[in-house]
Structure formats: C-alpha cells, structure tokens
Task: inverse folding
C-alpha cells in the first residue's frame, strides 16, 4: 500500500529510475547476443528476467528476519514498478491537446503511450489510440504488478516488471523480432493471463465509480475480449469500451505494418472527453486492484 501511495503522490522517480536502468542494460546485452533465433531470444529473456528475479529473491531472503527492511524494500519496489500516475498524466495531457485541436502535438505525444504510427491520425483516431493504451496499461502497469507483488513479494514485483519491459522492447511483431522476441512476448502473455482478466472484472465493478456502466462492460468484455490479437489486452480494452459506451479496435499501423483488429464494443467513436473518462476509470480500477492485492497478500 505504501508503494502505491508513493506512486500516486510522486509518480515515477525522476532520476536513476531502476526500470530505465534495466532497459539500458537489456539493450546493451541485446546488441551483443542478438540473432534471428528463438533459442537465442529465449536465453536472452531468461538471462535478463532471471537476473532481476534473482535479485528479488535475494532481497526477500536477506530481509526475512528484518521486518522494517522488508517493508521498506517492498514499498520501494512497488513504487518503481507501478505506473499509475504517469499513465493518468499522459492521458490527461493527450486530452488537453485534443481539446485544443493541437493534432500535431497529440500525434507526437502519443509515442509516450504506445508505439503506434500516429501520422495522419485524426481526433477520433487519436482518442481511440489513447483510450486503448490507457486500458491496456491499466492492466500492465497497475493491476498486474500489484497482483504479482501480493502473490510473490519482491521477486514477483521485479520479475514481472522485467518481463513487461522486455516485451515492450523486443516482443512486438516485426521482421527483426519475430523470432528473437518470441520468448519475451509469450512469457509476458503468460504473466498477464490472470491479471488481465482480473483487471477486466475490476473494470466492470469500478465502472459506476467513473460514470460508466457495469452491465455493458461485462457484456462487451465477455463477447469481444477475444477479438483482439493479444490474449490479454483485449480483455481490459473490451471492458473499457463497454463501460464507457464507446467503440475500440479497428485498423492500426506500427512502423509500416498494418494490423487489423476486431472491433470492441457497440458504442460511438471515442471523443476527447472519453480520454478523461478513461483516466478516471483507470484510477478507480487501480484502487480496486490495490484492495484485492491487500486481501490476497494476507
């Protein structure tokens, strides 16, 4: 809980962010070991995530008889792996830019949320991309780390964040990473299998707190959650679409590669106001996930 509060108050550490440091180290290792090979990619994933998880195991072991040290390390680890405040801040910035009609600024800013090609996106498409990113990252950067921390302590927090970071670095579909990034992508899918569905359920439960609708959220989640190419992202995105009464999914472009996804929801196209609603819903889901994590950890 202390780590969650620290993230809510301070956001990401401004200097020497451990996740950024891990990313730089992983990138340096990739430059040394990269090959268009699933085996090489699996070894890379195991080395990176295994090292970080091992540090978490060591920290957990060394503090087994030191409750205050265990508390402090758990709180610090929770703080650095969560991304709730940063996610809300980016969503709010996008809403401001869209409200002001600053499409060039919004297109540039979208890169802070996702790797989607924003060239030529209009207001509705930018609002959709932002809302989808808020939904997916609510699961990846808030719900999942809280649940992994509750179940597996410091190793769970650090190991999960390492896997999620590797997926963002090499796990996307491209000619370069189709094989090398396969293990990172599949391991991240496995790590998010349960949290994504818990996140969708919490979206349903939290929808009324953010001015949304629980019944459509549940219906769209169960009907459309599998239409997304990811086994996990579609769960929360579909629940968000139903809760907010909007339509998500469709055609996206990533680095020259076009991806046609199933449509999630029956509502209208997203508008800038829906980005703000998605931010409120994300915060409500985060609080609900914290409550679940507290119960699970006892």
Result:
């Amino acid at each position: 809980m202390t780590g969650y509060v620290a993230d809510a108050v301070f956001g990401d550490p401004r200097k020497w962010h451990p996740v950024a440091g891990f990313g730089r180290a992983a990138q340096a290792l990739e430059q040394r070991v990269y090959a268009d090979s699933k085996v090489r990619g699996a070894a890379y994933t195991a080395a990176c995530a295994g090292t970080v998880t091992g540090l978490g195991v060591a920290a957990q072991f060394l503090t087994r008889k030191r409750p205050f040290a265990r508390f402090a390390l758990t709180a610090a680890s929770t703080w650095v792996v969560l991304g709730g405040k940063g996610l809300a801040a980016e969503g709010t910035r996008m809403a401001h830019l869209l409200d002001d009609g600053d499409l060039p600024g919004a297109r540039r800013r979208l890169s802070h949320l996702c790797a989607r090609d924003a060239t030529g996106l209009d207001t509705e498409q930018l609002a959709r991309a932002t809302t989808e990113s808020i939904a997916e990252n609510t699961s990846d950067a808030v719900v999942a780390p809280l649940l992994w921390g509750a179940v597996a302590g410091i190793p769970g927090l650090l190991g999960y964040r390492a896997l999620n970071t590797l997926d963002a670095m090499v796990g996307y579909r491209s000619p370069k990473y189709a094989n090398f990034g396969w293990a990172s992508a599949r391991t991240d899918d496995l790590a998010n299998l349960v949290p994504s569905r818990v996140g969708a359920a919490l979206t349903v439960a939290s929808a009324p707190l953010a001015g949304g609708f629980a019944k459509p959220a549940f219906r769209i989640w169960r009907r459309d959650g599998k239409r997304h190419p990811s086994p996990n992202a579609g769960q929360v995105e579909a629940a968000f679409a139903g809760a907010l009464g909007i339509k998500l999914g469709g055609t996206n472009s990533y680095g020259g590669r076009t991806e046609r996804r199933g449509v999630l929801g029956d509502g209208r196209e997203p508008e800038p106001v829906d980005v703000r609603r998605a931010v409120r819903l994300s915060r409500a889901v985060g609080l609900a996930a914290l409550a679940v994590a507290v119960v699970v950890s006892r």
Q: What stands out?
A: The chain has a mean pLDDT of 94. Residues 123-170 form the longest helix (48 residues). The CA atoms of residues 11 and 85 lie 5 Å apart.
